[in-house]
Amino acid sequence: MSVIIPTYNESENIPVLLKRLSSLNMGSTGSLEVLFIDDNSPDLTWEAAIRHCVNTDLNVIVVRRFGRRGLSSAIIDGFMFAKGEYLTVMDADLQHPPEYIPRLLSAALKGHELVIASRYVAGGGTEGWSLLRTLISRGATLLARIMLLEARSVRDPMSGFFLVKRTLLSRCSKLNPLGFKILLEILVKCSPASVAEVPYIFRQRLKGRSKLGLKTIFEYVVHVLKLSGWRPFKFATVGALGYVVNVLATTISTILTPHFYLRNLVGIETSTLFNFTLHELWTFKDRRGGSVLKRLVAFHGAVVPAITTQYIIAQALYYLAGAPEAVSILLGVIVGFIVNYLISELGVWSSRRDEGV
Ligand code: GDD
Ligand code: MN
Prior knowledge:
With 357 residues, this protein is an alpha/beta fold. It has helices spanning 14-22, 45-53, 71-81, 101-109, 131-147, 149-152, 166-169, 182-190, 214-227, 231-252, 260-283, 292-320, 325-348; strands at 2-7, 33-38, 59-64, 86-89, 114-118, 125-126, 162-165, 195-199, 201-202. Helix 2 (45-53) links the parallel strand 2 and strand 3.
């Protein structure tokens, strides 16, 4: 078992961390290999690791990198240097109590390729979080679970504390070294056959400060969008094209009937079929599990609530808030679009092509 610990300015936490790691009883696995991947911390974390490891029976490797290369990249380097068959990733600040490591290992020994120490399953939780931090964490988790099918099957896809089998890593397509969320990358790019979640309590930081800032949050949103293959943008593009198709079909159908109440329906149905086809072939081409007929019916079902919300929002803004007509329509369209997207994402195209139903 190797434990990979990315560090940046954590020197004060190192002695306690090493002490607690060395008092773990790892049973037949023997002693732990511990890898510190440090970005040449100004507080000399790398030096603290070298100095304090001599008092333990751990196999400690310290990697001192130059230039701040980031958390995910440090973990990926850790994967390269580690020799264990099971690789645990954790923070250095004792927010991830080392005492859970044997539990992660025993879940892995039961055959799980990826074991997540999870805050959001029964028995798990967080300690001393502000309302803001809770909201950010929950919001970020929700975002991942909406946009990424792989994140939907786990409760805590944002965990920074997890164990991965080396054999799983050899099957991944290239992992992105940017950002904070390496676990999401692994979930999406390595397709683990079996994932387990072990509850744990995320503790308060022992010493020092978090490196998670506003920039990290912004980068995270871009990261999730990228992992999704920019799906919401594809969806919006199709929607815009669908509008053009709607207008064209309504105009062209004058050859069939002069009545707008009929031509309008032709336009709506033509654009619905047009959007559906493009979503099948492009937006959700990897999600065509099950029957196409069911999806076609479900997509029609998604149009009704979308139009209803669009109408309610526009009316409310116009009559209750006194907004100008054009603004009311625009916001109505935006909210209607979100409803349509959510239903499509979560209801219509919610299983992978090779998964069957
Ligand atoms: N080498 C290296 N380079 N290490 C880094 C860097 C960096 O640029 N930035 C942070 N680290 C190290 C920290 O020293 C710490 O050991 C660990 O990565 C996590 O950083 P924190 O600053 O403690 O992050 P956090 O506690 O706010 O966020 C943690 O919890 C999140 C869940 O809410 C992380 O574990 C996240 O991955 C996790 O999603
Ligand atoms: Mn931390």
